[in-house]
Amino acid sequence: MSDISRDELDAIYAFAVELGKQAGQMLKDAAQLRMGGGGNTKAQDEHVQKMNSVDLVTETDENVEAFIKTQITKRYPSHKFVGEESYSKGASRDYLIDESPTWCVDPLDGTVNYIHLFPMFCVSIAFIHKSKPLIGVIYAPFINQFFSSCAGRGAFLNETQQLPLIRNPIAPMPEKAPAGCVFSCEWGKDRRDIPDGNMHRKIESFVNMAAELGGRSGRGGMVHGVRSLGSATLDLAYVAMGSFDIWWEGGCWEWDVAAGIAILLEAGGLMTTANPPPDEATCPIPDVKLGSRLYLAIRPAGPSLTETGRQSQERTERNTDSAFDSIASSGVKYSL
Ligand code: IPD
Ligand code: CA
């Protein structure tokens, strides 16, 4: 684990857990203010647009990020901080995560959900070292779900329930996966209605996953269901739980996925890019690189009589990928 000792990492984890709880409480308080709770009459948390009318930021995003940044800077002044709102305001568009100890934070993931009081919104905090997300904390206060993980310590829901949820035994991936899987994906913020644009490519992939086996020129996945929570980091927490089997996304920023990756990997999930090497025999599926913008996550899987859990995850990845051909091979640069 390099130059951060076990004890140091455990202390950072304990700090991150407390920080997540406080930040999540701020989100909950802000939402309740909007509901007029506790005699307060502040009805609105004004939002403004960033890149378009579905890319939004509220005062709460800003306040919670400022709080988290201040706490981290006080406790760990030598650590780097990358937060969605600070990054959006800065001039640099460089890839900011390097080998140094870095905090990567989305103060409010699922801003559209928060604005509409659809309860799938959360704070997402990751601690990264040597480019690897080692600690993840995700707190969705409206549904009382607190996810946390630290490398070597396991991944948990509400600090006691180890992930994945089904673990006696941990189920292998379905034999005909993606058939029989719950597939999660997001519509994204790029709504340009152009045939070769991101939105159309995504929709094509969703339909491929849903269509009957043999349909869509052999790309039909016949998944059990297609879900969109509206929060990429919660999607990943749900893959870590095993409630989602497969998650795919193109265009996520590091703060959208860093905490979710930490939790998913610690739970035993697979995180890779949506572009596996073609030759199964000689090229293993590569581990994800934070910053790749294209991600495919597979839930934790146990062994069957014929495969290890990892083999069943890789089989699922390769079979799923045919649904995404148009995206993975397009070289499209997702900007939202
Ligand atoms: C967004 C959500 C959404 C995902 C976008 C993210 P925000 O984050 O996670 O599900 O599709 O890529 O930007 O704006 O709510 O923090
Ligand atoms: Ca956000």
Automatic annotation (TrEMBL):
Record-listed E.C. numbers: 3.1.3.25
PROSITE patterns, sorted: IMP_1, IMP_2
Keyword Aminoacyl-tRNA synthetase: no
EC class (word): hydrolase
Listed Gene3D superfamilies: 3.40.190.80, Fructose-1,6-Bisphosphatase, subunit A, domain 1
Associated pathway: Polyol metabolism; myo-inositol biosynthesis; myo-inositol from D-glucose 6-phosphate: step 2/2
Domain of life from the UniProt record: Eukaryota
Binding site for Mg(2+): E84, D106, L108, D109, D256
GO molecular function terms listed in the Swiss-Prot or TrEMBL record: inositol monophosphate 1-phosphatase activity; metal ion binding
Ranges where the record places region Disordered: 303-336
Keyword Magnesium appears in the UniProt entry: yes
Similarity comment text for this entry: Belongs to the inositol monophosphatase superfamily.
Listed name of the protein: Inositol-1-monophosphatase
Taxon lineage: Eukaryota, Fungi, Dikarya, Ascomycota, Pezizomycotina
